[in-house]
Structures are given as structure tokens and as C-alpha cells.
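Provenance

Sequences were taken from public entries as deposited. Structures were produced by running a predictor on each sequence independently, with no templates supplied. The record for TonB-dependent receptor plug domain-containing protein from Fodinibius salipaludis is shown for reference.
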Amino acid sequence: MKRLNLGISIGLCVLLLGSIGCATTSQHSQAIESQDNTTYWTLEDFLRRANGVQLNGSGNDIQVIIRGHKSISNPFSQPLFIVDGQKAGRNYYRVSSMFARGEINSVKVLPPGASAQYGMQGHYGVIEIESKYSTNQNS
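Predicted structure for TonB-dependent receptor plug domain-containing protein:
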């Protein structure tokens, strides 16, 4: 009987450790850096390559959804866009029209759990965009 209890407790520990590991990995941000082949990329191209980001709709009616428990419960809420360190709002079309092809250096996607530094404004996630003309570059 003691062997069975020991086996169950070990199995439960493995299960708990596995679920904790999954919870912590979903909170990390993902950065997509510009490379040689990104010369003609748009904001949409960067976001389509990010894990956990969905673009729904077309034209000036595109909805951006970042995977996370807060954004799944309300799929019509948009992430906050930060362009070169300045808040640019939640309108994807307006933000994407700020850039011509190839003007984006990097895009960093912060899911709802990892965007606490922005307070309630980051409730549905944050997309940080750094242009090639930014003064914040680490060069």
C-alpha cells in the first residue's frame, strides 16, 4: 500500500511541476528582430511571425489578439501599441499606416501576463515597435 501512495505523490509532483513550467513560459515576451530578409516587411509581416498573435479581418478593420487569459475572454479588446517608446493607442490600422515597408527594426510582443509595467493599459497585451529611425536603439 505504501508503494502506491509514493507513486501517486511522485506523479502528482511531476504534474504540478509541469503545470508551473507551462504557466511561467507563457508569460515571456517575444521579440522579432529585423534581418536582411525583412527589408520589405510591414507590421503585419512581423506580427504574423510572432507566436500567439492572431490577426483577424482585413483592410482597416484588423483585430489583433494576443494569446492570454485576459485577451481570450474578450477577443474584441486590442493590445496597446508602443512606438519608439511612446504610446500610440490601440488602433492597428492607424499604427501600421505610420510605417512604410522596411521601416520597422523590431517588434516585441508582451502577452497580458507580462505587460504589468504598463498597468491597466497593458491589460490585453502590449506590442512594442522600434523603428529604424528610433533614437532608443542599442548601437
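Helices lie at 2-25, 43-48, 69-73, 92-96.
The first strand starts at residue 30 and ends at 33.
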